[in-house]
Amino acid sequence: MLVASWRETYRGTMPDRVLDDDGLVEARERFWTAALVDERYRANRVALAEREGIVIGVAMAGPPEVPTAECSAHLFVLYVLAAEHGTGVGAALLDAVIEGNDESVALWVADPNPRAQAFYRKHGFHADGAVQSVEGVRSIRMVRIPSQHTN
Predict the structure, then answer these.
(1) To pair with 145 at 20 to 30 A between CA atoms, which of 9, 62, 68, 122?
(2) Which has the higher per-residue pLDDT, 15 or 74?
(3) Are 24 and 18 a contacting pair, CB within 8 Å?
């Protein structure tokens, strides 16, 4: 599920050679193994969504890699299989890893990715003007600051 969702999310945004690389599954397994067992990620919160025993979504949030005065948490991962979009799974995962509406949160979202950006706006996030490019994927930073959030 994790690789399938990653491929669904980035197909057309990231080069096919990256998404179709034979080593992608192993690379994502290494990522998740570190995220789940490495002591330096102990403060992260991870949630899985299942339907009939099959994982359909995953989310992970925790302290920002680079602390800022503005945001106390960073949403690192939120993926839901495309067949589950619009079912409430994404919102449930977001709620599971973010500590209520009082926590200030930042995230990076691929741009363009209008569906994901609309999802985050619906949940009180707004683009703050920061842009980055990683592995050829342009992303914008979105933040949700309690004093600015009315959800």
Answers:
(1) 9
(2) 74
(3) yes
Q: What is the mean pLDDT of residues 18-41?
A: 83
Higher-pLDDT residue of 52 and 66 is 52
Q: What is the pTM of this model?
A: 0.85
Alpha carbons 16 and 8: distance in angstroms, whole number: 11
Residue 29 vs residues 4, 26, 47, 63: alpha-carbon distances, Å: 13, 5, 16, 22
Tell me the sheet residues that pair with 138: 133
Q: How many CB atoms lie within 10 A of CB 92?
A: 14
Could you give phi then psi for residue 56, rounded to 5 degrees? Answer: -120, -10
Q: Which spans in the chain are helix H? A: 2-10, 16-19, 24-37, 89-97, 114-122
Which DSSP letter does residue 84 get? G
